[in-house]
Specification:
The chain has about 140 residues and is an alpha+beta fold. It is built from 3 helices and 8 strands. Strands 1, 2, 3, 4, 5, 6, 7 and 8 form an 8-stranded mixed sheet that branches.
Length: about 140
């Protein structure tokens, strides 16, 4: 068994539906997980016939999480707001952290504030990262 398999074997996961299907794995070291290799394997696992988004998260403090995301159909992403919210909720529900929670991702940090039974608030910076062009007529039915 390789080191990564041992790491994953000690993982605790929680599946959530927060606007979309998502599974959150809490690990000891986010950087040690090869999400580019594991993400598509989990996304396409028969356990998830409609596929699933994958979050790998590490609790780094009483109100802090480091997270990486594999988005179904897109691959590795630099940041994901719904993923940060789902991860924070899973961590708060499991009493791993208390809110508000700072969720740090490769693309930046978000603060997620949530109380059980209440509303959720996500705050953080927004940055322009892409400019593109779409031929909208090609999307017509």
């Amino acid at each position: 068994m390789c080191a990564q398999q041992r790491q994953i074997a000690r993982v605790i996961a929680e599946a959530l539906f927060l606007l979309e299907r998502r599974i959150v794995f809490f690990v000891d070291d986010v950087a040690a997980v090869d999400l580019a290799e594991l993400g598509p394997r989990i996304e396409h696992d028969p356990l998830f016939p409609e596929r699933i988004n994958v979050n790998i998260a590490q609790v780094t403090g009483a109100q802090a999480i480091t997270m990486r995301t594999w988005e179904r159909g897109a691959g590795l992403t630099r940041a994901c707001g719904t993923g940060a919210c789902a991860t924070a909720v899973a961590a708060i529900r499991a009493r791993r952290v208390v809110g508000p929670v700072a969720v740090t991702q490769p693309g930046g940090a978000l603060t997620i504030d949530w109380q059980a039974g209440g509303t959720m608030q996500m705050t953080g910076d927004a940055r322009h990262v892409f400019t593109g062009h779409a031929d909208w007529e090609s999307f017509a039915a």
